[in-house]
Design goal:
This protein folds into four domains: about 160 residues, Glutamine synthetase, N-terminal domain (Ubiquitin-like (UB roll)); about 250 residues, no CATH class; about 120 residues, Glutamine synthetase/guanido kinase, catalytic domain (Creatine Kinase, Chain A, domain 2); about 130 residues, Four Helix Bundle (Hemerythrin (Met), subunit A) (Up-down Bundle), CATH 1.20.120.1560. The protein contains 22 helices and 18 strands.
Length: about 700
């Protein structure tokens, strides 16, 4: 059935155009003014907006509303309340008041707080984020009006991902405007970071999924031998989309479009059963909200098609994992992109200053940027042959790298490498104008023409932390540049001198080569760049004096908020690894070892029966197989018992940081030791005995 995108796009969103139609002019003007300039709307206007929002939602079939927020779990939360008022004469009215719109009061004690809230102090507040439009979700429990909100404690500490994000956007707006004013730009009133998050994911048949306890409990396969075919032939990437997957994608697009999410790209990714969806760029805050909605919608739509959407960074060993490339740029309300170099970046002083600031920001806070992309699932992906290494570096491309080198070397005049043309040799194909530089897929932070692509974020993770960090570190560099240049007698000379000094000092962060190579690891160490291979190595970056000074200066985090987030990250790492270890113990003890014993028993009985029938029969193959399986069974049993003993020892530790490191250093290797013999047994034991679907079943039967 054909779909008219223009008719359904944003149909489930209480957008600015809907507000303009439904609100009195005075109320609408007040809302717009507060959205653009800050402040509070009056309670009278709040009542008008709430009533209009309720009427619109009821027309869409909504029965309940919720304050939709993003706690520190990394996912979204919602508590549904109906529009129904207290019955009178057996009748009731539907109502949403301004007070209900503006503020809610969920229980804050049941969400992660990292020590910010004691369990017996339960009060928390949600407050309406006017910059993100309300929307309705069509769920199995009914149609729900969702009001995006922040989530804070009774004392005002941020208990969510959105509050620091909004603070960081205000910080970079203020500092970026200072930079623009230095160049005589008095028209721009606002600078906003824009983001386009690419979302990778896997699909798996639901019936097969339900036979895998590891997928159910952890989102990834904790056991599994490689299938005979993986991604070696490189035939999945951009390949023809399978019928069942195509039906899912078509359905997903419609659901996303109704929610105002401009999903534009869909294709097969590198690994079997791996795919990607990417939206058009939008305001940073809205992009974060929409990405959370997109992940939720992907899971819901997959269920309709008898599928499960796997967002884990590494659901299958041996093939590419999934990331979420965070494309970040800065734009003014007048339409100027601060990261657009123009045709002559060598002569564009404003762009060169912005570039120098970003180089300084990324080099100074490489550890913090690495931490912002840390989640447990990313442990299995970063540094592998499909994702950026754990070492932060910037890719500028040949043209900009050459410009930077000339500036650093004090060249008399800065020349620009010109782009060439590409003639395919086919007369019916036009000659193509090549870009000034190639792309580097091994770079964690790559300039791609008019934006930077932060490629480290995990596919299951919220993009909020990464963008809070990007906004904050660049705001700091802008602030330091403005502090220096606002006092200069000769702005042009002072600006170029600052660009030269910062590019010289921070040129070490620029690397255009192969980020996967061992040579780069050695070279990065020589340059003094941090290499934080694990999440537990990266977490301390949150609480350094440097980090505290950065975030407190701009009011993005308090010291206690930073400490709480570090504690939550340690706790999350330990909890996830514990769940995975317990799942492995369950599966090995209940599924794999019994299956191997059954196979060995059957094999032994077969050998005995053949021997009884013919003493001269050659049973060398059967005996060799029995010996091999028995050895692997013994190895698996010993590894299982070792993990059983080790787990309670580590779990009993009281210091959460020490516990996280113990899980990393002891439990993870013990889990690998258990997986190895089980995966080898999978390749020996009869298919009809093996208790779970294999990699081939999961990846190629979708």
């Amino acid at each position: 059935m054909s779909v008219n995108i223009s008719e359904i796009f944003g149909s489930n969103v209480f957008s600015m155009s809907v507000m303009r139609e439904r609100l009195p002019k005075k109320a609408y003007a007040e809302v717009v003014d507060v959205m653009e300039n800050g402040g509070n709307i009056s309670m009278a206007t709040a009542d008008i907006v709430a009533n209009a929002m309720k009427d619109w939602a009821v027309e869409k079939g909504a029965t309940h509303y919720t304050h939709w927020f993003q706690p520190l779990t990394g996912v979204t939360a919602e508590k549904h309340d109906s529009f129904i008022t207290a019955p009178k004469d057996s009748k009731t009215l539907l109502q949403l008041t301004g007070k209900q719109l503006i503020m809610g009061e969920p229980d804050a004690s049941s969400f992660p707080s990292g020590g910010l809230r004691a369990t017996h102090y339960a009060r928390g507040y949600t407050a309406w984020d006017m910059t993100s439009p309300a929307f309705v979700k069509e769920m199995s429990c009914g149609t729900i009006l969702c009001i995006p909100t922040i989530f804070v404690s009774y004392n005002g500490e941020a208990l969510d991902k959105k509050t620091p994000l909004l603070r960081s956007m205000e910080a970079i707006n203020v500092q970026a405007l200072r930079i623009l004013r230095l160049f005589g730009n008095t028209e721009a009133k606002k600078v906003t970071p824009s983001v386009g998050p690419e979302q990778e994911y896997f699909l798996v048949d639901r019936e097969k999924y339900l036979k895998r306890r590891d997928l159910i409990y952890t989102g990834r396969t904790l056991f599994g031998a490689p299938a005979p075919k993986g991604q070696e032939l490189e035939d999945q990437y951009f390949g023809v989309i399978r019928y069942r997957v195509g039906k899912f994608m078509a359905d997903l697009n419609q659901e996303l479009w109704k929610l105002g999410i401009p999903a534009t790209t869909q294709h097969n990714e590198v690994a079997p059963a791996q795919h990607e969806m990417a939206p058009v760029y939008t305001t940073c805050n809205l992009a974060v909200d929409q990405n959370q909605l997109a992940m939720e919608t992907m899971k819901r739509v997959a269920t309709r098609h008898g599928l499960v959407c796997l967002l884990h960074e590494k659901p299958y060993a041996g093939v590419n994992g999934s990331g979420k490339h965070n494309n970040w740029s800065l734009g003014t309300d007048t339409g100027e992109n601060l990261l657009d170099p123009g045709d002559t970046p060598n002569e564009n002083l404003q762009f060169l200053l912005v570039l120098a600031c970003i180089m300084k920001a990324v080099d100074t806070h490489a550890d913090l940027l690495r931490c912002s992309a840390s989640c447990v699932g990313n442990e299995h992906r970063l540094g592998a042959q499909e994702a950026p290494p754990a070492i932060i570096s910037i890719f500028l491309g040949d043209q900009l790298d050459d410009v930077v080198s000339q500036i650093v070397s004090n060249a008399d005049s800065i020349k620009l490498l010109t782009s060439s043309k590409l003639d395919s040799g086919v007369s019916t194909v036009p000659v193509i104008k090549k870009d000034a530089t190639d792309r580097n897929r091994t770079s964690p932070f790559a300039f791609t023409g008019n934006k930077f692509e932060f490629r480290m974020v995990g596919s299951s993770d919220s993009i909020a932390d990464a963008n809070v960090t990007l906004n904050a570190i660049v705001a700091e560099a802008f602030c330091q540049a403005a502090d220096a240049l606002e006092q200069a007698d000769n702005f042009h000379d002072a600006c170029f001198r600052l660009i030269h000094d910062w590019m010289t000092k921070h040129q070490r962060i620029v690397f255009n080569g192969n980020g996967y190579s061992d040579e780069w690891v050695a070279e990065a160490a020589r340059r003094g760049l941090p290499n934080l291979p694990s999440m537990v190595n990266a977490i301390p970056a949150l609480t350094t004096e440097k980090s505290e000074a950065l975030f407190t200066k701009f009011g993005i985090y308090t010291k206690s908020e930073l400490e709480s987030r570090a504690e939550i990250m340690y706790e999350t790492y330990a909890k996830v690894q514990k769940i995975e270890a317990q799942t492995m113990i369950h599966m090995a003890g209940k599924h794999y070892i019994p299956a191997a014993i059954h196979y060995n028993t059957r094999l032994g009985q077969s050998i005995a029966a053949v021997t009884a029938a013919s003493a001269e029969a050659d049973l060398s193959v059967q005996k060799s197989l029995l010996i091999r399986c028995s050895a692997l069974l013994s190895e698996a049993s010993k590894a299982l018992e070792a993990l059983k003993v080790l787990l309670p020892e580590v779990d009993s530790m009281e210091n959460v940081e020490e516990m996280a490191h113990a899980y990393h250093d002891k439990i993870v290797p013990a889990m690998a030791a258990l997986r190895k013999p089980v995966d080898e047994l999978e390749l020996l034991v009869d298919k009809d005995i093996w208790p779970v679907p294999t990699y081939g079943d999961l990846m190629f039967e979708v």
